[in-house]
Amino acid sequence: MVKRLETGKRNCCAVRGMCDPCTIQYTEAATKVLGKKVPKAKPWFNRICEEAVQRRKLARQEWLIDTSDEVTLRRFRTRQREACKILRCEKRKYIQNRVEMAELD
């Protein structure tokens, strides 16, 4: 199912859409005009969450350097629990605020 599309002076092959050069040109033009959409997958993920995740990541990296060290393992496990609690709490706050806003409307 190959069809030929006439785009100005050149032909463009398309199999279920546009070929790569055309798609790239259209995408670039659309991006210039419209800008890029930044998806916000987790709107509740704020600075507090980011810091907790960063602390957990650093503790994990320290533990991975020497996996036989019990102190760094305990520190990593503590940071894991701490990050999990913070993320859960921030998500809960976000959902509660959304529900309250919906009740007011």
Radius of gyration: 25 Å
Order of helices and strands: EEHHH
Number of strands: 2
Could you tell me the mean pLDDT? 84
What low-confidence regions span 5 or more consecutive residues with pLDDT below 50?
Answer: none
Strand order of the largest sheet: 1-2
Structural commentary:
The protein is mainly alpha-helical and 105 residues long. 66% of the residues lie in helices and 11% in strands. The chain has helices spanning 20-34, 47-65, 70-104; strands at 2-7, 10-15. Helix 2 (47-65) runs antiparallel to helix 3 (70-104).
Note the main attributes of this structure.
flat; 105 residues; mainly alpha
Give a brief rundown of this model.
This protein is 66% helix and 11% strand.
SSE arrangement:
Blueprint: E1 2-7, E2 10-15, H1 20-34, H2 47-65, H3 70-104
Antiparallel strand pairs: 1-2
Helix pairs in contact: 2-3
